[in-house]
Design brief:
Blueprint (H helix, E strand, L loop, with lengths): L5 H4 L6 H21 L5 E5 L5 H9 L4 E5 L11 E2 L11 E7 L7 H14 E12 L6 H12 L8 H8 L19 H9 L2 E9 L11 E8 L4
Parallel strand pairs: 1-2, 1-4, 2-3, 4-5
Antiparallel strand pairs: 5-7, 6-7
Helix pairs in contact: 2-3
Length: 229
C-alpha cells in the first residue's frame, strides 16, 4: 500500500471534512500554546511527528525554544530540535509539554510514563496540553468513512452494530494493539487517568467549540501540576 504522508492524512487531506477538522485542531493547538507559553519559554512536543505543529508554533512565536520527540518519524523542519527521549530533558525546564493526537496510541504503561515525565520536566507553573480524538458521538461516522476512503477499502474495522453503539456513546471494545487504530478510544477514560496526577485547568473541543463534546471530533485538556498557581 502506498504510504500516505502525515500532512496528506491531516491538514492537506483530500477529504474536506477531515481537512477542516485537522486545520481547526492545528489552529486551536497553536493558539492555546501561544497563550500558555511565556516569552522566551520552552515547548516540548511529545509525539511530534515530522514537526509540523512546532514549525507552525515557531512562525507565530519565534521567541520560543522548540523541542520535539518522536520514536517513529524523522523531523523535516530544521529549526526544531529533537530529543531522543524525554529522559534527556532537564527537570523543571519546560513551560509547556504538548501531546497532540498521541495518547490514543499509547499503552496504559506508556501513558503513566508520559505523566511521570511531565511531572518531572514541567516548571511549577507549567502546563501539559493534550489533545485526543473523540471516537464517540456524531463524528464517528465521517471518521470511519474517511479511514475507508484513505485506505481504499470497503471494509471497516467497526461492525455496523459497533458503529451505532459509538454514535450513541455505548462503549466499544478496544483492540489489543492501539498503535494503528483509534477504535474504541474514550477520551473520558484518559481524562480520569490524567486527573489523578494533574489538575485539569480547562477543556476545549474542536472544531465546534461551545457545544456538547459529542458534536466535535477532538478534545483538548490543559493540565497543571498539583499545587501550581
Amino acid at each position: 500500500m502506498r504510504e500516505i504522508s502525515y500532512e496528506a492524512q491531516t491538514v492537506k487531506s483530500g477529504n474536506p471534512l477531515a481537512r477542516f477538522a485537522h486545520r481547526t485542531r492545528m489552529t486551536m493547538a497553536t493558539d492555546l500554546v501561544t497563550g500558555l507559553c511565556p516569552m522566551r519559554g520552552t515547548v516540548v512536543d511529545f509525539g511530534a511527528g515530522p514537526g509540523l505543529f512546532l514549525h507552525t508554533l515557531g512562525e507565530a512565536r519565534p521567541d520560543i525554544t522548540l523541542i520535539g520527540h518522536d520514536k517513529f518519524m524523522a523531523p523535516t523542519f530544521p529549526e526544531v530540535k529533537y530529543a531522543e527521549s524525554l529522559d534527556g530533558v532537564a527537570s523543571h525546564s519546560v513551560d509547556v509539554l504538548t501531546s497532540f493526537e498521541v495518547c490514543e496510541h499509547l499503552y496504559a504503561s506508556e501513558v503513566h510514563a508520559l505523566l511521570d515525565d511531565a511531572a518531572r520536566i514541567l516548571k511549577a507553573n507549567g502546563a501539559l496540553v493534550i489533545s485526543v480524538p473523540i471516537m464517540y458521538g456524531l463524528a464517528i461516522a465521517p471518521k470511519v468513512s474517511n479511514w475507508m476512503i484513505r485506505s481504499r477499502t470497503l471494509k471497516s474495522e467497526y461492525t455496523p452494530a459497533e458503529l451505532l453503539k459509538s454514535m450513541v456513546g455505548i462503549r466499544v471494545e478496544r483492540p489489543d494493539n492501539p498503535r494503528i487504530t483509534h477504535k474504541g478510544f474514550d477520551f473520558r477514560e484518559l481524562r480520569d487517568v490524567v486527573s489523578e496526577r494533574f489538575a485539569i485547568d480547562a477543556a476545549h473541543v474542536s472544531p465546534v467549540p461551545n457545544a456538547p463534546w459529542w458534536i466535535s471530533s477532538q478534545y483538548f485538556m490543559i493540565c497543571r501540576p498539583r499545587g501550581s498557581v
